[in-house]
Amino acid sequence: MDRNVALAALRNHPRFRPEFEKNFEYDPNSKSYKEKRRAYYSYAPITTSYMGPYQLQAVHQHEVAHVRAKHPDIETFKRTDVYDTARKFNREARKRPIDGRARSYLTVGPWLRLRLLKTSVHITRKGTAPQKAYAILAKHLLKQIEQAVKPRIVAPNFKGSKKNFLTIGTTETLTTATHNLLTQLLEKGLRRKQKHIIYRQTNSGGPLMEYAKNNEALY
Q1: Domain ranges within the chain, ordered by starting residue
Q2: pLDDT tens digit string along 133-142?
């Protein structure tokens, strides 16, 4: 009876097709169907050199087996492997303030690109941006700051393999910043080697997010 119920649940999946059934097997412990894991092999040559009066070269085949499922989202079996971890991360990405999926994008000419999330804006630079580009960005960001809760600007900072964040503008600085001061802060942050700064706030949305719904560039 349990086997029939599990089979019915598998067949009722929207993406299930009859030819998929041979790829699944019944698991009596969990009383559900899971996909058979098949190994996919790849080969890469490993070159080894031996130095002496003559240089000899030996080539060995390095075999790598990748075990993965073709349709992991169809199976009713609940796994705790890397596939489930990745899928869970992507599902929850919309709720996380910093690493969520982008709502929309904006640009300032070909130099500055804004990736807008719910409570943060990732700003990156490409090439040498003119002073006017930073002034345009500062003009729109000032409107965002006026309605923001705890706004701040940080920049990724790498020390070897360690990553931390360098504060470019604190909440106190941004809430009282003039257009010229904010322009200088943005230019200072984006002229760094990483060419990347992050504007953060505690609340969601704002004028910049609303502007991005109907526009693709800042002027």
Answers
A1: 2-93, 104-212
A2: 999 999 999 9
